[in-house]
Amino acid sequence: MVLGAGRRQSGRHHAAFCRSLRHQTLQALVEALGCSAGRPALLALGEPGTGSLSYAKLNEQVASLAAGLAARGLQAGDPCVICAPNCTGWIVTCLALLRAGAVPVPVDSQAGSADLHHILADSGAVWVFTTSQVAPRLRLRDGPATRVVFLDSGDGSAEGWLDLRAAPTGPLAARASPSDRAVLFYTSGTSGPPKGVPLTHRNILSNLDALLAQNLVQPDDRVLLPLPLHHVYPFVVGLLVALASGLAVVLPRSLTGGHLQRALQEGDVSVILGVPRLYEALTAAIEQRFSNQGRWAVAGYRGVLSVVSVLRRLFQVELGRWLFAGLRRRLAPRLRLLVSGGAALSADLAELLQALGWQVASGYGLTETAPILTWNVPGQGRLDTAGQPLPGVQLAIAAPEAGHRHGEVLARGANVFAGYHHLPAQSAAAFTADGWFRTGDLGGLDAAGYLHLHGRASSMIVLPGGENVDPESLEAALASCPSVREAGVLEHDGRLVAILVPLADAARGQSDDALRQRLTDEIKVTEQTLPSYQRLNALAVDRRPLARTRLGKLRRQQLVVRYQDHLRGTVVPGQVMDPSEFAPEDRQLLDDPIAGRTWDWLRQRFPGRSLSPDVDLRMDLQVDSMDWLNLTLELREVVGVELGAEAVGRIQTLGDLLRETLAAEAAAPGAQDVVARLRDPEKALSPDQRLWLAPPSGALGLLGIVLQGLARVLMRGFFRLRVTGSENVPEDGHYLFAPNHLSALDPIAVLVALGPERLRRTCWGGWVGIMFDRPLMRLVSRSNRVLPVEPSRGSLWNLELAAAALRQGNHLVWFPEGSRSPDGTLQPFRAGVGLLLQAQPVPVIPVWIAGTAAALPPGKLWPKRRQITVTLGPPINPRELLRDTLGADQAVDIAAALHHRVATLGGVQDESVPAQGAAVGWEHFEHEADIGLRATAATREGLFELLGEALTAVVTEPRRVKPEQERVIRCAAPDNALLIVDWLNELIFAMATEGLLFSRWQVRLEDGRLEARVRGEMVDRQRHQPVVEVKGATYTALKVEQAADGLWHAQCVVDV
Amino acid sequence: MCDVVDLSKLEQLTAYQWRIPPSGEMRVPGVIYGDQAQVAQMDDKVYQQLANVAKLPGIVGAAYAMPDAHWGYGFPIGGVAAFDPDEGGIVSAGGVGFDISCGVRTLHTGLALEDVTARKARLADRLQDMIPAGLGSRGAITLDDPAMHDMLAGGARWAVDCGYGAAADLEHIEEGGCVAGAQPGAVSDKAKQRQRREMGTLGSGNHYLEVQHVAAVFAPEIAAAYQLKEGDILVSIHCGSRGLGHQIGTDYLREMLLQAPAHGLTLPDRELACAPINSELGQRYLGAMRAGMNCALANRQIILHLTRGVFAELFPAARLCVLYDVSHNICKVESHSVNGGRKELYVHRKGATRAFGPGSAHVPTAFRDVGQPVLIGGSMGTASYILAGVASSEALALSSACHGAGRSMSRNRARKRFQGSHLVKELGTRGILIRSPSMRGVAEEAPEAYKDVDVVVDIADRAGLARKVARLEPLVCIKG
């Protein structure tokens, strides 16, 4: 099966393939970008303000930025650091620099500070392109000595790249010659500080042309680039191959599963440029899908896979293409080719990916060789080898050095660099006397010309006895021990030793000695399968992950340092870890803005503590279940993500917390899932959480009884509590009591109203802010079975506790408003009560409390003697509440219907029911195509406020809108009528651009000027069921007047 | 519900043509198309609005109301009026409406009914997944300032340049997909801000994307020219310029209202805010409105592209190509005969479709012998029509026809009367799959809340405004 033979659709784009062959320099290649004009060039997912670019547009941006930079003094040949995560600005800037003849210096934005400073100094860059997040670590100040340009929106301390663009008017930039330096890469450096690797135009283009001649890509491909572009492999094989062929490049928002999958689908990706680790995750995710369907599904999947695999190898039958077509389509419909680089792709993984029906291409190379040396053409190569030399590349194997079994791989060709930047000694050492580049890898060529690699020469350990140990294969063997997460092998004093990092699970709660013993035991078992010279002489146990490069290679020099620390006993467990020391997957995790923000928050939350993704929240940070509540609340506040009880249950380490946060952000649960969980709530509760439900025993029970007695004395004696409607509550059965909420006295009044008999099996929803913030209050809460509730942003387990209380046959007192009413009016009910009733449909007793607000208003400490009354209404069957539901969100509707019942019990006007025909209120009037708003109010301000509510009501029920966010709206007009139109149009604008809905309006008017504080929340399509968007307010039937009785009337038609 | 027109105030010219004789400040008569039953039920406000339009400076011929005109703001919906710049003629933001260049694009799919029946539900689901619809939906595209500028200047052509669709799509779009004279600079930052994330979204209200089949062909020779035959599967996209157009309308209505005295205009009603064509404001509005039209054309082009993706995924044999794309809320410069000579007029059509007859240079060559396709959208669950422009329409109504059926019931009443989930079920039993994010929205768009489109189209045909070619029935409807 020859790649590209069957699917080329037309010759139209073939020209694009050959185009780069004609280019002598990257500068020329960039100048020709516009030739692909209308084709899409770039899709950056999750990037605000840019989205997608066509080649025409990309070309224009690149040209204008190049012109702008030149106008600001950028010279041909200037080295320019780009230190930022992948983004549109990164690519445009890099191309603009090439176009201007300057030399981009791509730098890992997550490199440690020491490395960053070394690169800045070593490269001699004056221009630094970075982001406001990375800039503080670079510690640069924009000025004549260093010109800082932000690739994101910046922090105001320097210009952004968008500002630098200028019309390309001047003469063309100085011509680069093929032998000029094109890009200065820095090797991630497994040892020592990063080394500058200058690559010329010829180096890069010779490799690029050879790759293009392999028909790696097809004219309609779209290429996913998940790897950071400071690395030469994604830069050349991904970005440049795509741009030279006129293909679209897709940048995912982050490397987490959800974002990758979105990128695969939304980006319509057909080629991925990844590393083996990424493909491991991909296959693991596929297997996970089957495991969700049960054990047999997994077994079936594995069975089919092995059959497919055998058939493939024996008869070249591509059964997987048919069998797994559906699976591939769900994952990424157009995905056909997986390119693997950066590290060796295991033959097993390659086989698995092919059995699933994808094509796999892999290669081997180094930064110094720009980068590809050998290559496995998809469908033809031998994936158990590193492949055959790419055309134009010559390979040779040096004679093995003393003690080594394999010789070093040597390379020659137009793609091989000339020497390191500013490092004459190391440059000289990198080449043999007759000019071959020493790759530092050991290997051999077989008869068919395939390269087999056998480890790094530099890392190959030669023991005093002359035995060769390839640390990588030994490390892989050690890592297969059940409790070992990773291992680093090194030589110390002529002996073979290792640092072992235990799995977090295995290390938890174990003393260092016990852990060490356990690992030693396990290793003994494994060592029996190894040659005796490969057995370890000593080992150190370290709970921190080993330092690795971005592509996952161990930093062996760090290994030596750390081992010496162990010997000296200077490993201090409390050291704060720099994210650059994290394991690569954790570091990739932090690339995501949400995870990054979460991490920053954690560092503030636990100051002075050693934090790493492996830190255990319970064991290391002493987070108990009560703290969890606070943590989830803060998390929601800080990063806007809510973690459910299940997620909390899964979290052990900070790394878990980051992953769960991202997962929760990617998939907020639908209302139906919530109800399903509330139906069987105990399942999700931890034993600790279930404790809240148990009746208090012993001293706690006694305390409860004493407190209840005190409450009775206080209520009956001091406040002369009057309870009516007790006869409405039958003796048997259990109920949800739904009172209005005015004062902190309310629960005490209800407690007395319920009477001692019912209290024995009554649970309460209690606000954590009061009932749980101090130890004494917690005691009080426990003694009276108060369940913790955080109404404004409660995590799901609050509701699960309440649902469990109902399910176990208890009464539940639940204040559906969620907080005390600021002005005595009944506030909208939160959806929680609706969810509870949907899941646990028990009868509801509406309760009306009066007098407590006067007796103890919010904010007062000492009560006044006022009479308090509690009225209990007859039970309401929850199905009655469901009768007049509007749409999908039953919970909101139930809450709203209950609101009406409680309001009726209190004999108050339910303010969310428009006062049709009443003196004051709003209504919609009929208009053939659009909607008329009409309002009557006692004041002009009230009139504007009511029109605001009528406007919301066009879109959704105003009572469903939570007043969470505040906006200030200002407008001015020559007359009242125009001011009404302006007011409504400003609201419409805020609704349209911010996706907000409003439910509170506070209007101030002065001389034709309006200033309003409006509060609302983001549209939630599930909950609000928004029906139409309002286009604008019109002047049709527009009226505003003050009638003789002093009331204000207004009407306005809005176009929908 | 409302006061209806007093028939005694009208002169009946033919069975389907009624005249409001000029009186008071009316400069020209009003002309209403409809049968007696329809006109007798027409809201008196339509009559008043039409009479008011006839009072505007520079109006030529008459103020026209298409069959089923109804009460709008400014102009009635279904209103057509042309103004002569040399006679002090005006351009009116209310005569175009908020949803600038709202229109219908109909696509051939190359599929037949039997090809899709079995996979209809999957098609509906995928379309719903891929095409952002309804309030609170956001497109995948975010425009920065340069891209916004290019989009407003380039229209559907910009979209094609960005990779949404192919150049061939542009041939069957009015103005070749890009209207000249657009001035992105005349569009306020607020309007651009409203559009930043709305490219490729359907919107809400009566907007939709429908998969339809040709249920009946009335004029086989024209249908052949349009490449239609019974059982063909078509897709119709009904939407407009989204937030951008809405804000342009908002901005310019206000400015025209405030500047009217400076322009020496006494407005019969505030809602008729307008500006002389030959004024700075008038020209600026035209530039902004044309940018709005480009936005609508780009928007429909992106939705076409998304739709194409879904069809390619489910029906490899499908070939989606544009039958036609026509706007029904727009002001255009057209040459019409006035007092025996030809004159460049500014023709406002609000809720009315341009309907050029055979031979017009504005009609793509493929249709030049049979007349321009006139795309009439139905409401949710009801039929749509394809008509052809006829020569007689030029004299009757400046080559215009109706654009669909209006509401017979207000949103409030519809919401109280119908339940969204029931409607979805009921239409489902009739083989029509509805996908909508809002059940309340479905209730407000209930088929019975609209007038009968069959009747409206019949009258347009009989009145000589356009000729019935084919009736389309829905299979799948994605509602905003």
Describe the structure.
The complex is a heterodimer of chains A (1056) and B (480). With 1056 residues, chain A is an alpha/beta fold. Chain A is built from 40 helices and 40 strands. In chain A, the strands form nine sheets. Chain A has a nine-stranded mixed sheet, with helices on both faces. A seven-stranded mixed sheet of chain A has the order 26-32-31-27-30-28-29, with helices on both faces. Chain A has a five-stranded parallel sheet with strand order 4-3-5-6-7. In chain A, strand 3 (79-83), helix 4 (88-99) and strand 4 (103-106) form a beta-alpha-beta unit. The longest helix of chain A has 21 residues, at 295-315. Chain B is α+β, with helices and mostly antiparallel strands and 480 residues long. In chain B, 32% of the residues lie in helices and 26% in strands. Chain B has helices at residues 36-40, 44-53, 113-116, 120-130, 145-161, 189-195, 220-225, 242-259, 280-314, 392-397, 411-417, 420-429, 439-444, 453-462; strands at residues 11-14, 17-20, 30-33, 59-70, 77-83, 90-92, 103-112, 208-217, 232-239, 274-276, 321-327, 329-338, 341-350, 352-354, 373-376, 384-389, 400-402, 433-435, 466-479. In chain B, helix 5 (145-161) crosses helix 9 (280-314), helix 6 runs antiparallel to helix 8 (242-259) and helix 8 runs antiparallel to helix 9 (280-314). The longest helix of chain B is centred in the middle third of the chain and has 35 residues, at 280-314. The radius of gyration of chain B is 21 Å and the shape is globular. The chains are: A alpha/beta (1056), B alpha+beta (480). Chains A and B meet through strand 2, helix 3, helix 39 and strand 38 of A and helix 5, helix 6, helix 8, helix 11 and helix 13 of B.
